[in-house]
Structure formats: structure tokens, C-alpha cells
Amino acid sequence: MSALPKHVWTPEEYLTFERASEVKHDFLNGEIYDMTGASRKHNQIVVNLAISLGSQLKGRTCEIYTSDMRVKVNSRHYTYPDAVVVCPEPQFEDRAFDTLLNPTVIIEVLSPSTETYDRTAKLKNYRAIASLMHYILIAEDSAHVEQYSRTGDTTWVISEVDGLDGVIELPAIQGTLSMLDIYVKLTLELKPPNSEA
Q1: How many Å apart are CA 62 and CA 90, to the nearest integer?
Q2: Are 14 and 41 in contact (CB under 8 A)?
Q3: For the chain, which has fewer Cβ within 10 Å, the N-terminal or C-terminal residue?
Q4: HEC profile for the chain?
């Protein structure tokens, strides 16, 4: 993630710029950040998420989006999560229908270039979204998932799952994510959880 040349952007300027751009950018506190490409493993995990969640949500009013759906976190922060689920129906900022306002679940796949951002500004700002019930961080190189779940207006509980035999419960959408489903086609490439190597 790298910032564009220094200029304090308004949200309106950002949206005008972004809708004309061929590449995606995050907006945070008046600055625009170029979103770099993702690795093969990162992309495979996002596809696996879409397949698993898509099959569970089939026939329901919920929708799942991958990294091309922009989310308005607040007036100072727009971003593109790796995967988003909204239940029951999506609400959008305007008639362009490209900026989601009411995510229920947000999932980020951690990569070296975005992990700090995902764990700091995104974590803090996402948890202020009234509709958000689960924020999930998925390791790219090992079978490890962290889940933040809302249990009250301002109370969140963190849980972690290690290894391929675990399951992440998503009660807000009446669904689950098995670790095996998340890491399909990648199991032979994973490091042991908490490995330094």
C-alpha cells in the first residue's frame, strides 16, 4: 500500500477519482492509497471463501462480494475488503451501487504489505460500523484465523483457530467456514501455525 502524492482529498473528490480509475485505491483521512496486487495464495483463499460462503447463502437474501466492492467505513475511510457478506439486503451510498454501507461480515486475508493496516486502522474503524458482526483475519501462509465478533453495542470478543480441522462459526449469517474450505488447494504449502520459518 503506497500513498499518492500529498493532497488532502475530500470523500467526494476520492469517489470521482476512484470511479474513473482503472486500479483500486483506499481512502483514509484525506489520503488515497494505491492497492497493490495480491499473491496467488491470497487470491486462492478469496476464491475459496466465495465458493464456501456462496453455497451456504444460496437461496437467501444475503449477498457476498469479493475485493471489487468498496465499503464506506465512515466519511474518512473507504476500503476494499477481500470478502464481505451482507444480510439481509445491501444498502449503498448512492445509485452507482458500488459503495456498500452495511456489511455484516468483513474478511481480510493478511499479506505482508497490508497486515499492519488490517490490524490497526481497519480493525479500529470496522468495529465502529453498526451493522458489522464479524471481522475475520486469515493468514496467508499458515492455517490460522482470528475472528472478532460483536457481543454487544461496543463489546467484541476475539477467538483464534489453528490447524486444518477447525471451524469458524458465523452466527450472524447462520453459517460457518471450515479451515479446510478456506485453504483448499493450499494445504501442502502451509507452514505450521506460529512458525517463524
Answers
A1: 8
A2: no
A3: C
A4: CEECCCCCCCHHHHHHHHHHCCCCEEEECCEEEECCCCCHHHHHHHHHHHHHHHHHHCCCCCEEEECCCEEEEECCEEECCCEEEECCCCCECCCCCCEECCCCEEEEECCCCCHHHHHCHHHHHHCCCCCCCEEEEECCCECEEEEEEECCCCCEEEEEEECCCCEEEEHHHCEEEEHHHHCCCCHHHCECCCCCC
User: Per the structure block, which three cell numbers stand in for 44?
Assistant: 486462492
Cis omega (within 30 of 0) for bond into 193:
no
Give the span between the Cα atoms of 169 and 186, in whole angstroms. Answer: 22
Q: 102-126 pLDDT, tens per residue?
A: 999 999 999 988 899 999 999 999 9
pTM of the model: 0.92
